[in-house]
Design goal:
By secondary structure, the chain is mainly alpha-helical. It has two domains: 62 residues; 48 residues, no CATH class. 51% of the residues lie in helices and 8% in strands. It is elongated.
Length: 146
């Protein structure tokens, strides 16, 4: 089959990247998974029916992997030792993108950090949303008037 021999990865709810890892590995091993599930010498028919994935499930994985990849990369970046951990700040204004961008800009100014050299991981506990933004993308037009 000319597919790398790798074990499948199981999603773990406590590990943020495990869904991406699982999808990526399953997509890589799709032909091998199909072959094993459809080989009666290896897999019982009842197990194959339970474990076999439909075309729509494969399509969902194929569509979701690129969506999850930036979050995977962000998590690896933020958790690496190459980047210092930032501080937590309360926002006095509403938690809007503009107010968050202004606060990040103020932090850059305070610590004399170039705006185009940092990335921010922003979390809003109220809605449990996490996203990665590059400071120049968020602040592009806001900082140009300075």
């Amino acid at each position: 089959m000319h597919i790398p021999e790798n074990a499948l990865i199981i999603d773990c709810v406590t590990r943020w990247n495990s869904t991406y890892d699982m999808y990526k590995r399953l997509l890589q091993q799709r032909l091998a998974v199909y072959a094993v599930l459809h080989d009666e010498k290896v897999t019982r028919l009842s197990d194959a029916r339970t474990l076999d994935l439909s075309d729509s499930q494969w399509q969902i994985m194929q569509s979701m992997a690129p969506v999850l990849k930036p979050l995977y990369m962000a998590t690896r970046l933020v958790c690496s030792e190459a980047f210092p951990t930032s501080t937590t700040r309360e926002l006095e204004d509403r938690h809007t993108g503009i107010n968050i961008a202004k606060e990040i800009s103020a932090i850059c100014d305070e610590f004399k950090i170039k705006h185009n050299t940092i990335a921010g991981l922003v979390s809003d506990n109220a809605s449990n949303m996490v996203f990665l933004c590059h400071i120049t993308d968020v602040l592009g037009t806001l900082c140009s008037s300075r």
